[in-house]
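=== RUN LOG ===
request id: a7f3
mode: sequence -> structure
chains: 1
length: 42
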Amino acid sequence: MIAGVLLIVVLGVLIERGLLDTLEKHTVVRWGMRRQAEALSG
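=== RESULT ===
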């Protein structure tokens, strides 16, 4: 059971880092929100 939970956590992190970050970067560039995103991130 613990292995199943850990597997779900690892898959969630990989999907978040790989797929969603890439999608977010393309969306920010397409919608012209790059300056706002850069200001918020640092």
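=== NOTES ===
The chain has a mean pLDDT of 80.
Residues 24 and 30 are 10 Å apart (CA to CA).
=== END ===
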